[in-house]
Structures are given as C-alpha cells and as structure tokens.
C-alpha cells in the first residue's frame, strides 16, 4: 500500500509545513511530491492533508499515519544499523539436551544476553537424535547434544564429560556396598528416554546373561527422574552434577563394582557451518566458558 519513500515524503511535508518546503528538504520537485501524495491518498482512500491559504496540515488520518509509521522507520533504521555494523540480533533457535539445562545453559544464556542484548532465544529441550534431525533440516541453529549422535557435516566442539552415576533414596532401598550388576538389575530403574544413547547403555550393561530383563523405565524429564527416585519408585541413573544441584531430593550415590559403572556422558556444541557459522562460534565460546566455570 505504501513504501518507505512515501512515508519519508509525508513526514517531510508535516515537519516543514508544506509541499514547497518539503521539496527543498528532500531534493524532489514539488510536482513530484504533490503527485506522490495524490497517488497515496488514492490508494489508501483517505485524505492525508488539508490545504488552506497558508499551506497544508495533516488530517486525523494523516496524523495517525505519521504516528504509526514513525515506528516502522525507527525499526528500519535499527535493522540497517545492526546489519551494517555487524551487530548480533534476532532469534537464535537453540536445542539443548536436558542435562545441559541444569548446568551449562543458565550461564551460557546470561553470558550471551550480556554481550548481545538484541539476541532473542527460542529454546527447545529435546533428545539428541531429534536435535540431529532438526539441525540437518534447518530447524535449529545450534544444538548442545550427545557427541556420538551428532549428524554428519556439523561443526562440533566437545564439552567436558558429564559424570553419570547410580543413585538411590537410602530410606527406600538398602544395597550391598559395593553393589554389583545383579543387585542393580533386581530393582526398578529410572533412566533416560528409551530412544537415547544413555538408555541403551544401561540396557546393554544389565542385559547380558540374565534370564529376565531388568525393569528400566524411561523419562525425558530429569526432574521427574529425581522425584521418582526420591519417592522410592526405583533407583536412577542420573548425572552427578544434577543430584548435587538438588540436595533436597535426599539421594545418595550407589557405590558399585567396576563392571557396573556407567560411562560418562559426552556432549558437544553443534551447528551447520554453511548456515550458522557466526552465531555457532559465539554460542560455542559461551558454552565452553560456562562449562569450565
């Protein structure tokens, strides 16, 4: 219906009090300005200026157009300034494994907010296999996910390993010290979701040479796992840092035989370099700093 040049001309007429003064200010011929205004009024089907012997003044519709379009002009100028001065702004689609939401994520986002206040974050908490798919399909800009499940072609930076342990509510279960695989497999177990690599590792650890499969329950919510274990539903496989951050859960790490120990979780910051090199590098920097604090 109208362009920025139309807006600038209307503002110039209103600011300088007439078509001739606006012509001097914009460098356009007065006839061209008159023609532009007439065509704009025809398209909008409103009268923007009232003409009198001393010049012109805005109608009610004209004043509203000027007031509303000031916001558009300011936004245009801001966008152009950000683009030309290489300012980081806009929405970052960030995928995060839930383990990282309780450790790295808060410090990472605080760092990025302080450095780049014009950035906005759209955060998705998901499994690593789903994040791998979204990275490939341009559904995410950056993901913090299990390193072993990163898709081909990503720029990948490892994070420090996360210790994973067996935990129990001592008032509900009494296990041998140290506990062996059979001791663990005899109890209900709450672990990561079924489709995830940590869940499969627990299954592989407990399944060999057993007549009956262990009862392993999966949850995508670490808060749910903590609650179930603290209430005596079963024992849990939980990152040690998460348990340390939730002392009110009252959980104790189970001392286990070496063969029953769980491997560390290895996470990485991943992004597709051809699409998200700039923001990917900055998220990587902030994530590494947050992980080492």
Automatic annotation (TrEMBL):
This is DNA-binding transcriptional regulator, LysR family. InterPro entries: LTTR (IPR050176), LysR_HTH_N (IPR000847), LysR_subst-bd (IPR005119), WH-like_DNA-bd_sf (IPR036388), WH_DNA-bd_sf (IPR036390). It comes from the Bacteria. GO terms for molecular function: DNA binding; DNA-binding transcription factor activity. Residues 2-59 form the HTH lysR-type domain. PROSITE patterns: HTH_LYSR (PS50931). Pfam families: HTH_1 (PF00126), LysR_substrate (PF03466). Belongs to the LysR transcriptional regulatory family. The keyword NAD does not apply. CDD domains: PBP2_LTTR_substrate. It comes from Paracoccus seriniphilus. Keywords: DNA-binding, Transcription, Transcription regulation.
């Amino acid at each position: 219906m109208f362009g920025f040049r139309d807006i600038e001309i209307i503002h110039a007429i209103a600011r300088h009090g007439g078509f001739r003064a606006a012509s001097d200010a914009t460098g356009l011929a007065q006839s061209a300005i008159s023609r532009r205004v007439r065509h704009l009024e025809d398209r909008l089907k409103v009268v923007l200026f009232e003409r009198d012997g001393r010049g012109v003044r805005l109608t009610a519709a004209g004043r509203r157009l000027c007031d509303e379009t000031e916001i558009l002009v300011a936004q245009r100028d801001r966008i152009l300034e950000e683009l030309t001065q290489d300012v980081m702004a806009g929405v970052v689609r960030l995928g995060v494994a839930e383990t990282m939401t309780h450790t790295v994520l808060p410090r990472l986002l605080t760092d990025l907010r302080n450095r780049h206040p014009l950035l906005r974050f759209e955060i998705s908490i998901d499994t690593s296999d789903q994040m791998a798919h979204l990275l490939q399909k341009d559904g995410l800009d950056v993901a913090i996910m299990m390193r072993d499940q990163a898709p081909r072609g990503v720029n990948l930076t490892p994070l420090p390993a996360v210790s994973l342990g067996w935990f129990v509510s001592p008032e509900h279960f009494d296990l041998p010290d140290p506990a062996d695989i059979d001791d663990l497999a005899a109890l209900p177990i709450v672990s990561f979701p079924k489709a995830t690599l940590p869940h499969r590792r627990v299954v592989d650890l407990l399944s060999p040479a057993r007549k009956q499969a262990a009862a392993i329950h999966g949850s995508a919510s670490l808060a749910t796992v903590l609650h179930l274990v603290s209430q005596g539903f079963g024992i849990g496989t939980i990152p040690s840092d998460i348990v340390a951050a939730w002392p009110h859960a009252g959980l104790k790490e189970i001392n286990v035989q070496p063969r029953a120990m769980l491997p560390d979780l290895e996470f990485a910051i991943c992004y597709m370099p051809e699409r998200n090199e700039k923001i990917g590098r900055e998220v990587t920097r902030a994530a590494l700093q947050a992980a080492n604090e």
